[in-house]
Specification:
36% of the residues lie in helices and 16% in strands. The protein is an alpha+beta fold. Among the domains are: 68-153; 154-189; 232-371, Immunoglobulin-like (Sandwich). The strands form two sheets. It has a five-stranded antiparallel beta sheet with strand order 4-3-6-7-8, with no helix packed on it. Helix 5 (108-149) crosses helix 7 (173-185). The protein is flat. 16% of the residues are buried.
């Protein structure tokens, strides 16, 4: 029995169309377009070559002394037996790392152990290098101290603290050198100034006899530039540790005891931040100028300093004639306890004594070290 495909509903309704063969289109009577090829003569031109500017970049030549120090350091490093052994071990370890058997068959624990051995040998070389650097720094420090103590250079009296600290190991050789070079660049430490001797001709002046009362009449008044600790008062306006920063203000007032001689002259306010254990938080000194007049007898100084993660701190504020003259104190030391959660607590002021003389050395040292590192 033959199977026949049933017609769809559409075929039943409209019938099955009969296929037709399309009649080819007659060619257009338009004449064909003739394309002519025109041969263009080839023009050969010379290749334009732009000469490259010849010049050399500015190079700062290395000083012979610096080259000699580097060569000496390299020689010491290469001749060190620990460095020699570590270098040979590293060479062998790197060869093993590149070998086919190690890369193909070594287990992960074996590879980790191999990497640790490479790190250990590298660390040995770095340790020797650091020791050699410390030896070189210590030699520079010793030479500088000999120059200072022999009078080859003039330095402030408070810098004697730095010499003692580096000798006793309280500060590093690098910290001492940073402070010394900064003070030298500022001209604070310098060679002794020798003034030339100028011989002036002796001129004989005529002797004039004056009445006895005349010297008293032309006598100049004495200048009173005395300073006392009750000339300026300090008052905390607000001080807290907010988001890890000490933010606050201190008000300075010239009292009735303020010496008029210092009106219109700059005096110095120095502030340092310490932990409750007395350790300096900031590696530099906060120094501000105060300038009182007869009509403007108070000033407010605002502070905003990073507390290096400390949530409690002690603020110590001084008012001096100048940064290196702690004896000329216009006010007693003003101390404030600050924290993140409590209101600032002013402590009873202490009398400026010998302890302040030591404090200035610490303040100046830390300030100069920080300034020199930022400028370099």
């Amino acid at each position: 029995m033959a199977l026949t495909r049933s017609k769809s509903l559409k075929a039943k309704k409209f019938g099955t169309p009969t296929p037709t063969t399309p009649t080819p289109k007659a060619p257009s009577p338009k004449a064909p377009k003739i394309v002519r090829t025109v041969t263009t003569p080839t023009v050969t031109t010379g290749v334009k070559v732009t000469p490259k500017p010849i010049g050399t970049r500015g190079v700062i030549p290395q000083q012979p002394a610096g080259i000699a120090v580097q060569e000496k350091f390299k020689q010491q490093l290469q001749n060190n037996p620990i460095v020699k052994a570590a270098t040979e071990a590293l060479k062998n370890l790197h060869q093993i790392s590149k070998s086919y058997n190690f890369q193909r068959f070594a287990t992960p624990p074996e590879k980790d152990l191999h990497e640790r051995k490479i790190e250990e040998e590298s660390q040995k070389i770095q340790d020797v290098e650091h020791k050699l650097i410390e030896i070189e720094l210590a030699a520079n420090v010793s030479q500088i101290i000999n120059t200072l103590e022999s009078g080859g250079q003039v330095y402030p009296a408070w810098f004697e603290n730095n010499i003692v600290w580096v000798k006793t190991g309280q500060i590093t050789s690098q910290a001492f050198l940073d402070s010394y070079y900064h003070l030298s660049n500022q001209g604070i430490i310098h060679a002794p100034i020798i003034e030339p001797i100028i011989e002036e001709p002796i001129i004989e002046e005529p002797i004039i006899e004056l009445p006895e009362l005349l010297p008293e009449a032309i006598a100049e008044p004495e200048i009173n530039d005395s300073i006392t600790t009750n000339m300026v008062t300090q008052q905390v306006i607000n001080f807290n540790i907010v988001n890890g920063r000490a933010i606050g203000s201190i008000r300075f007032v010239a009292t009735e005891n303020f010496n008029p001689y210092y009106y219109g002259k700059n005096i110095i306010n120095i502030v340092q931040f310490k932990t409750p254990n007395g350790v300096n938080i900031l590696p530099y000194v906060k120094q501000n100028n105060l300038r009182f007049t007869e009509t403007e007898r108070d000033e407010v100084i605002n502070f905003d300093e990073d507390m290096k993660g400390n949530t409690r701190a002690t603020v110590e504020s001084f008012v001096w004639e100048w940064i290196d003259k702690p004896a000329g104190a216009f006010s007693n030391k003003y101390t404030i306890e600050i924290s993140e959660t409590e209101t600032a607590k002013p402590l009873s002021t202490g009398i400026m004594g010998a302890g302040v003389g030591g404090a200035i050395g610490i303040l100046i040292l830390l300030g100069f070290i920080a300034d020199s590192r930022r400028k370099k």
